[in-house]
Amino acid sequence: MQPWPGTSYPLGATYDGAGTNFALFSEVATGVTLCLYDPDGTETSIPLPERDGFVWHGYLPGVVPGQRYGYRVDGPLAPEAGQRCNPHKLLIDPYAKSIDGSLGQTYAWDESLFGYHFENPDEVNHDDSAPHVPKAVVVNPFFDWHDDRPPRTPYHETVIYEAHVKGLTYQHPDIPEEMRGTYSAVAHPATISHLQRLGITAIELMPVHQFVHDDALVQRGLRNYWGYNTIAFFAPHFGYASVGPTGTTTPGSQVQEFKAMVRDLHAAGIEVILDVVYNHTAEGNHQGPTLSMRGIDNQAYYRLVDDQPQYYMDYTGTGNSLNVRQPHTLQLIMDSLRYWVTEMHVDGFRFDLASTLAREFYDVDRLSTFFDLVQQDPVISQVKLIAEPWDVGPGGYQVGNFPPAWTEWNGKYRDTVRDFWRGTPGTLGEFAARLTGSSDLYQDDGRRPYASINFVTAHDGFTLNDLVSYNEKHNEANGEGGQDGADDNNSWNCGVEGPTDDAAVLELRQRQRRNFLATLFLSQGVPMVLHGDEQGRTQDGNNNGYCQDSEISWMEWAPEKSDSELMSYTCEISALRAAHPVFRRRRFFNGREIRPAAPGSSDEPQRDIAWFAPSGEEMNDQDWEAGSAATLTVFLNGDGILEADQRGQRVVDDSFLLVFNAHYEDVAVTLPGEGLPDRWATVLDTVDGTVVVGTARSTAQTTVDALPDDLETVGGGDTVTLTARSMLLLQKTDAGA
Question: pTM of the full predicted structure?
Answer without folding.
Answer: 0.96
